[in-house]
Amino acid sequence: GGPRRLLLVSNSTLHGGGYLGHCQQHIQSFLGQKVKRVLFIPYALHDRDAYARTAREKFESLGYGLDSIHESYDPVEAVRKSEAIFIGGGNTFRLLKALYDNSLIHEIRKRVLEDGIPYMGSSAGTNVATISINTTNDMPIVYPPSLQALGLVPFNINPHYLDPDVKSTHMGETREERIRQYHEEPNTPPVLGLREGAMLLVEGDKATLQGVTGARLFLRGKKPTEHEPGTDFSFLLTDNNPLNL
C-alpha cells in the first residue's frame, strides 16, 4: 500500500472547454506512468453506456485504458483489481445509493486508504469522497440508505461553489447561507466550497488547492475565509474528526 492519493475536482467541464479539459494535465501528473487502466464509476448518471464512452474517449486520449464498472459482472471484484478509480459527476444521491446497493463503500475505502490506489472524483464523485453528502447541491431523487459517504477525507466539500450575485434580485438562500444552516447542526465538519475550475490534491497528510479558481472554507461557528490556488489545506486532514469515521 501507500498513503492516500486523491484528486477531488469541482466540475467535469469548465465553460469554453471539453470534458475534463481544464484538469487533464493535473490528471496526467496525478496518475503518472504506473497506472495503465482506470476503473470508471458512472453511477451518477442514468445513461451509463454513453457516460462511459465519454470518459473512455478522454482517458484514452491521455494514454490510459478505461474500464467502466457497470460493464463488470462483479463490481466488488472490479474494485479489488483496480489500479485507479475515477467517479464522475451527476446526481450525488443516485451515485451514493448505487455505491451502497453494490456493496462498494467498504471496498473503495480499503483500496484507497489501505492499498493506496489513486482516487479521482469530479463533482458528485468529489462529494462522495468526503464524510457525507449533506452539502451536495443535488436534489434527493432517490433514497440512499445513509448520507454518510466514503470518508476518504474528514471534512465535506461543496463542489460548483457559487458566490452571491450582487446584481441578482433572487431572494432564495445563497450557497453560503445553506452551508451556514448545515453548521447550525452540532458536530458538523468543515466544508470546503470549491469553485468551478478548482480541485484539491491530497497526498497522504498533505492537501493542496489547485486549479484556476479559489475556494471558500467554512468552519462551524466562524466566518468563512477565502483561499487562492496553492493554499495548503493539510490542517483539514489532521483536525479531530467529530464523526469518528
SSE pattern: EHEHEHEHHEHEHEEEEEH
Main beta-sheet annotation? 7 strands, mixed
Biggest sheet, strands in spatial order? 3-2-4-5-1-8-9
Shape: globular
Please tag this protein with its features.
245 residues, alpha/beta, Rossmann fold, four-stranded mixed beta sheet, disordered C terminus, serine protease, protease, cytoplasm, dipeptidase
Describe this structure in words.
- The protein has 245 residues and is α/β, with parallel strands linked by helices.
- The protein has a single domain, classed as Rossmann fold (3-Layer(aba) Sandwich).
- 27% of the residues lie in helices and 19% in strands.
- The protein is globular, with a radius of gyration of 17 Å.
- The model is unreliable at 241-245 (pLDDT under 50).
